[in-house]
Amino acid sequence: MGEQKPEKTKKHICAGLLAHVDAGKTTLSEALLYLSGKIRKLGRVDHKDAYLDTSPLERERGITIFSKQAVLEFPETRVTILDTPGHVDFSAEMERTLQVLDYAVLLINGADGVQGHTVTLWKLLERYQIPTFIFVNKMDQDGTDHDALLTELKKRLNENCMDFSENENADGDLEPELPAGEKEQQNLMENKFSEEFLESLAMCDEKLLEKYLETGEVSRREITGLIADRKVFPCYFGSALRMEGVEKLIHGLDRYTRWPVYPEAFGAKVYKIARDDQGNRLSYMKITGGTLKVKELLITSKGNVAAGEEVWEEKADQIRIYSGARVELVKEVPAGTVCAVTGLSHTFPGQGLGVTENSNMPVLEPVLNYQIILPEGCDVHQMLKKLRELEEEDPQLHIVWDEQLGEIHAMLMGDVQIEILKRLIWERFHVAVDFGTGNIVYKETIAAPVEGVGHFEPLRHYAEVHLLLEPGEQGSGMQFFTACSEDVLDRNWQRLILTHLEEKEHRGVLTGAPITDMQITLLTGRAHQKHTEGGDFRQATYRAIRQGLKKAQNVLLEPYYEFRLEVPVEVVGRAMNDIQKMQGTLLPMETEENTAILKGKAPVSTMRDYQKEVVSYTRGMGRLFCSLKGYEPCKNQDEIVEQIGYDSERDLDNPTGSVFCAHGAGFVVPWYEVEEYMHLDTGIMAEFEDDLSEEDWEDAASGSGNPASGDDTAQSARNSARSGAGSTGTARNTSGSGSHAGSGYQPPESAYRGSYEDDKELQAIFERTFGPVKRDRVSSYKKVVSALSYSGSSSSAKKDQEEYLLVDGYNIIFAWPELKELADADVRAAQTKLMDILSNYQGYKKCTLILVFDAYKVEGHQEEVLTYHNIHVVYTKEAETADQYIEKTVHKIGRQHQVTVATSDGLEQIIIMGQGANRISARGLKEEIEETRKQLRQEWHQHRQSSHTYLFDHADAETAKLMEEVRLGKKKL
């Protein structure tokens, strides 16, 4: 695909302003507008005349509620500034804006330093990989310390936060940054930066450091590259109100940014939905490729529509460019432009148009659920329809109609958002609503794999679906896969089932809360050639999920805060006691002079009102910073379930049973009898139960002897089950670490069984269920290629390629007694021992061997591939287990390449066989290695049968004949 850049030399970037509330963000935007010539008079928040505070609500409260944009002109750069809300209650609006930013300016209040929400913003910028400039505001206030603030930035944000304001002379002449290739040595930073500062810059990149040591120079292009790659974060200090330091910030944005490269094909990212004063629906978007013209037909692909919706096409009636309250109508906009488009009714925030993909789910989400109380006489259903308009603009509201209670519920961040929402509903719909008491938003997951069966067969309808429900990693959300052969169920039916899985927020059976952190795999299904319709599979799929959940070991999840509590040393005992009462956990305490710093996590339900207590017992000297950490198992699950009183059997919208047909009439079968009536039998759960005895399950699930903390309940049960089996019995309490590396893990006896011969029985079971596996049976080992390096190959060539083998590292370590004993003392030593064993094995077998280790609990870890002698060692990325990496690889190449996976994970064996791969158990691999050692010893002994070594033993025949004639004197050399 070709690429384009703007015809003019002037760059065009989109930069966002982010900050904690009251950091002076709107004041900074006024200063930028004024200094760039956009406005002639400075507005102020307290005077209620700020340029970007266009809403009466914003002017009344003095805070930013809705993201706004303005276009600024700098000497080299045209900048579209997006001013985002700073209050934590409107974080969802801020996060949606991050999807379209090229750069960000993060404001820090110099009087308060780095606050809790500031760290949250920093993590979001890191997640979205947005290059960031930092402006420390309010430096004119008493008590601000430049050096102390810079040290805090380096400590709490990134060590490469560097002060550009003190080290650069901003008065020098500016030369336009030229496109790549037009000038090799561009604008060397002579007489602008100190030698010490340049050296610090060079230390941020290895290649740049080598060049700097040779030349002693750092070019402007290189500094721009460091910033764009998030290796350096320029910091500026000043006061936006007094216009101090703002010019240097403008100078930095002008000189050290570069325009993105866009494709020629049209693309756009929708980040916001709003309505103008006339009620017209506005789709705010950034053009990410090509151009957009008025009346142009916009068509979305199947991959970019919302789940359950059809592909649509609509015309762009108007293209508007907003700058504060002013609007400009244009006929065409190029790539890089942020605009609002009318005429589109199906768009949603995060949607990609054209070549642009949809965004991932947002990180920040509300954790409180409120009932919306309507006035007497108000039509509930009409009001629900109107509230859906607000949900379009803010999808995080999650407007829900509770049929049983006859109530409307919404999910909100806090009290400020409630007040704003009340005003919006009154101004737009003239209805005075109230809100009930906020309740915690719980979620549900499962602790062990389970199979769910759904059957829908009223008269002249037919569909049956079998799903495998597995626990996922914490924070992974819902993931959907298929392991069903197309010989059993046509591809179009499989795609339909996956669509039905994605289109709905499925509810758990404990409290009716949404389920999360699960992987759902389609195992098999059946359709009728004459009677099956699309809606039949929807019903069967929904019922399969519910039936599986009723059988599963369910876990209730609640939201947790990650907190930082700063209190005087003399009251630290009270603070620690409070955290303990709140069922929180603490990291080692830190102290700074007379202040104690406590960090840890605690349930939102117990900590939500703790700020008032902190202010009280510290007499205003304590500070509490909280940010949402995620969802973790609820410690008082039984109490919460009983309190909510949800009855899954009375939830008619989410039935747990199935519908079968007999004698020309349909009848309902309860969930616990479905398997007696079902028409297909996968046999998967029976295999698990055979492999894992009750005693094995209890030992593995209890995590006895494991030194790791026991707060990852769902994950520990998942790992326990995946190490050998699953359970379909009643729920059991589980605890322990989710890592295979724990010293107390004891694999079941089945982990030591199995070899290539065992594949025959497993394969027979699989083929009875899913049909024959299509693959080339060339040799016992098969070639495996890593998911990142695989580029595809022809089927004719694959038979001549080397053999490949994937090995689940921790599964093998804890299945081999000698390695497990070593791992109890030192896991790293066990890893090295296994790597040495496999290196020797590879040297004899000459296969390409890939050893995979879990690193999913290492925060921020990226996938790492190392070469150890003659094998490849993979450490998975954060939130990805070795099982998932292997499944991903086998899914990609299993039917085109010869693949063998070494693992004793029964569930993993089923899945990899579904992708056309063979498996070998831990015991089988050990036997293969022992046999290889024996063969090596035999060959070595045969080679040393004679202790004599003769000169001509290894010479070719002609040389040997010549030398023999010389020895006999027949010839001379």
Describe this structure in words.
The protein is an alpha+beta fold and 973 residues long. The protein is 32% helix and 23% strand. The protein has 30 helices and 42 strands. The protein has a seven-stranded mixed beta sheet with strand order 3-4-2-5-6-8-7, sandwiched between helices. A hairpin with a 6-residue loop joins β26 and β27 (463-471). α6 (195-202) runs antiparallel to α7 and α12 crosses α13. The chain is globular and about 110 Å long. The chain starts with a strand and ends in a 6-residue tail after the last helix.
**Poorly predicted tracts of residues:** 170-191, 690-762, 773-800
**Number of E-state strands:** 42
For the record, give the distance between the C-alpha atoms at the N and C termini, rounded to a whole number: 69 Å
Q: Helix share of residues?
A: 25-40%
Average pLDDT score: 78
Which structural class fits the helix and strand makeup?
Answer: alpha+beta
Taking all Cα atoms into account, the compactness measure Rg is 32 Å
Strand-residue proportion: 15-25%
Oligomer: single chain
Major sheet, described briefly? 7 strands, mixed
Overall 3D form: globular
Strand order across the biggest sheet?
A: 3-4-2-5-6-8-7
- Tell me the number of helical segments per DSSP (H or I, 4 or more residues long): 30
